[in-house]
Amino acid sequence: MSHAINHLREYDAIVKVVQHYIDGAKSGKGDDMKPAFHKDATVFGYVGDDLFAGPIQQLFDWNENNGAATTLQARIASIDLNETAATVRLELDDWTGLRFTDLFTLLKVKGEWKIMNKVFHLHP
């Protein structure tokens, strides 16, 4: 298989992982997001002056409490892929009235891409 074809397959696999996250945001169900993340993933960002940081379960819990974001608009702004590691920048608008920029680091673990870390910016 050519390097270019393999690169496109990996890119598509990453997009699919990010789509699990988006689908979970839209449904308001943490369980819909979970397939995107490694079990030991973390989340970091500020909500106002407060640091939102720790195990990814905090994101799943927030998502459940926040509810479905049925009007969410999501766009992948960039993907940087390097064999077994990748970064993704995701722009999200109208997550129940909020706008976020998410930065993900991904790692290919046992043949599957998983988000290892989410760092976010909540726009004012």
Reported by name, the CATH topology is: Nuclear Transport Factor 2, Chain: A
Shape type: globular
Number of strands: 6
Mean model confidence by pLDDT = 95
In CATH terms, what is the architecture? Roll
Biggest sheet statistics: 6 strands, mixed
Helix content range of the residues, please? 25-40%
Task: Compute the CA-based radius of gyration.
Answer: 14 Å
Unreliable stretches (pLDDT < 50, length at least 5) are none
What topology, given as strand order, has the largest sheet?
Answer: 2-1-6-5-4-3
Which structural category fits the helices and strands? Answer: alpha+beta
**Helix-strand topology string:** HHEEHEEEE
The portion of residues forming beta strands comes to over 45%
The level-1 CATH class: Alpha Beta
End-to-end gap: 46 Å
Keywords:
globular, 31% helix, 6 strands, 124 residues, Nuclear Transport Factor 2, Chain: A
Please give a structural write-up.
With 124 residues, this protein is α+β, with helices and mostly antiparallel strands. It has one domain: Nuclear Transport Factor 2, Chain: A (Roll). The protein contains three helices and six strands. It has helices at residues 3-27, 30-33, 57-66, and strands at 37-47, 50-55, 73-82, 85-95, 98-109, 112-122. The chain has a six-stranded mixed beta sheet. Strand 4 (85-95) and strand 5 (98-109) form a beta hairpin. The longest helix has 25 residues, at 3-27. The protein is globular, with a radius of gyration of 14 Å. The N and C termini lie far apart (46 Å). The mean pLDDT is 95.
